Amino acid sequence: MISKILRKNTSAAQMAGFVLSNFIGLVIVLGGMQFFLDARSIWSDSDSIINTDYLVINKKVTSAGLMSAGNTRFTEEEIARLGEQPWVRSIGRFTSNDYRVMARVEQGGRGMSTYMFFEAIPDEFVDVPRSQWAYQPGSDEVPIIMSKDYLTLYNFGFASSAGLPQMSEGLMSSIPLTLELSSEDGSRRRTVHGRVAGFSNRLNTILVPEAFMEATNREFGSQAGAPGAPDAGQGATRLIIDVSRPGDTAISAYLSEHDWEQAGDKSAAGAAFLLRVVVGIVLAIGTVITILSLLILLLSISLIMERNRAKLHSLLMLGYPAGMVARPYASLAVAVPAIALVLSVGSAIALRAWYITPLEGLGATPAGVWEMILTGVALAGIVCGVNLLTIRRRVRGAFR
Amino acid sequence: MPRVFVNERIPASAVWLAETTFERGHTYLVEATSGGGKSSMCAYIYGARTDYEGRILFDADDTSRFSMDRWLELRRRNLAYLPQELSLFGELSAIENIRLKNRLTGHATERQIEEWMERLGIASRRDHPAGRMSIGQQQRVAIIRSICQPFDFILLDEPVSHLDAENNRIAAELIGEEARRQGAGIISTSVGNHLMLDYDVRHKL
Q1: What are the angstrom distances between the C-alpha of B52 and each of A371, B72, B74?
Q2: Between chains, do B100 and A318 touch, taking CB under 8 Å as contact?
Q3: Which domain holds residue B129?
Q4: Which of residues 286-325 of A touch B (CB under 8 A)?
């Protein structure tokens, strides 16, 4: 009977409208958030070794470079000026080996050996746990980070044509790699064991810890300094930069102005940044719609209660408890967000089912849906809470 | 025993600017000219308005400190009120209006209500929307509604202003019976046509 009296000014169409607007807001927020969580892994998980905020740059190799080896080196002055750019947080130099390296792999009785090279960057740029990337001076074991491209090259180029088995990252890491280091004239030599600590697709090189590089360059390096060896004052051919805003156009402008190029997969940092911007916009729109729909619902409930104020007052005059009088409105205020929540979570999951296969094809590891559901519940809970508070205030307002 | 004091600033009277006590088990008539503040007095005692000076005490408790929930409970258990404007729900039928109160208190049986309606001559209008009944009929519905609860006092604001002498007598009978049964006090206001009861005390407002 109370509902009959108090719900007189509410219609099913109105309620459907509230559910719809609430649903649209929530589905944009939840869908956008879920997509971000799922897609994020394409960029962030694919290279856990080198952060996407790091850029690797080098000078372009031109035909003029053939005439004078070494003009692809960055001078101290260039590095200093680069360091003054606002988007640069820190700069690391690549150092390379100044001695010969012969790598040998033993596999099922078959051996394979090749000349190799190393490069090193400061440890702060390598996102591998310290315990796995440490090199004890004098130790026989050295951790290595390899370019994923090399593995791909081996698996799909070399192994299939030479009839060798293909190797996964895990398998590759478990194969013992024997490295023979020797000085240019062959007078000093030593054997160490390489352990693959990880693969990177942002660095086209074979990386060893800086400490190992320093120690071995001192031990085997030629006094004169072979081309490519970064003796003090000579600068490096490649630099790794920690940038504050990976997608900044100022970076590409600066690089092209100096005729330098960005190595590795150039798109990743920009794409990750772009994803963040796009998702940010989508989430902002969804949040605005959610807030607006909340306000509309709130205003409508307030308006209905205001129109029914005399009836509310009469019921309170009869001694009806505030809770009983509020119930018809409270049930609306809870039902609308609750229905919208169920619909939007369902839609976000359906949307996810639609994009998840192509996304996995792009190399994403999908995130769970719990974060999205919890966010939805929290948002709907806030909407309910605000509504209930307003209703309570309105009932109290109708008392006298 | 409940005691009520009312003080106010307007014209000199037995209630305003004075100390008045209402006691359970007694009947009071508060007479006034139109605009004398009868309805205000009822609203103050019932907690519906607070625009007064002075103090209203229920036993020793100052009612100005009562919370909304306390008032609502008092209205279900201790105070019955028949407002002058009746406050019936026009879209509900006569019986629904009465049930609206009775379901809350569970005080009277369905048979008892039917009997009261019979006695006041509105049984035939039982299922008519209250909004389409005459003022006199509405007044009788409101009278029945007001006694569908336990009470220590019943406040009747011009309860029979639209009733003929016969219905006035029957209404007085019903209210008197219910108040006696509960040992309650009756406070009735009037501008001339008053509820036909033997009043213990008559106040001029």
Answers
A1: 56, 20, 20
A2: yes
A3: 27-204
A4: 311, 314-322
